[in-house]
Amino acid sequence: MKAPKCILLAGIFCACWGFSLAQGVAQANAKCPIMTDGDVDPEETVEFAGLKVGVCCGKCGKLWAKNAAYYLKAAPELLPQFKGMEGSLGLDKIVLLPQTFCPMKTKNLICPDSPSCDYRGVKVYFFDQKALEKWKLDEAGNARRALAAGILPQLVGR
Fold first, then answer.
1. Would you kindly state where each structural domain of the chain is located, as residue ranges?
2. Could you tell me the pTM of the whole model?
3. 69-106 burial: b if 16+ Cβ within 10 Å, else e
């Protein structure tokens, strides 16, 4: 009988002081930090600065591994587990591109290493090669739609 009382007391202590018994075990984000409309797959987690980050798929896990700090700075609202750590993670030294999302997959973040092409003398970034190929089928129409949606600020006035 003593063990259940200890567990009960530990639970009360944690609840009173805002601790979680699962703290440090599960990631805090519910949405993927790269495919931002994708729910996190509980079996797909990566780490950054000692904290777990949930992603929706293995592809996003690989992208995160290459540019974790960039994605974190681009979408901090999706990663509450890092709130208040921006300075210690060096995010102030990261310069974001003017473009945040892919013009073809509009909920997917891009980064400086993403596939890109020049359009009207400006670099446009894409989530993946398939999105770039789709863009090229109708560059003018796709640019017009992306501009109207506010996705390509680097093209404003061009």
1. 24-93, 97-158
2. 0.81
3. bbbbbbbeebbebbeeeeeebebeeeeebebbbbbbbb
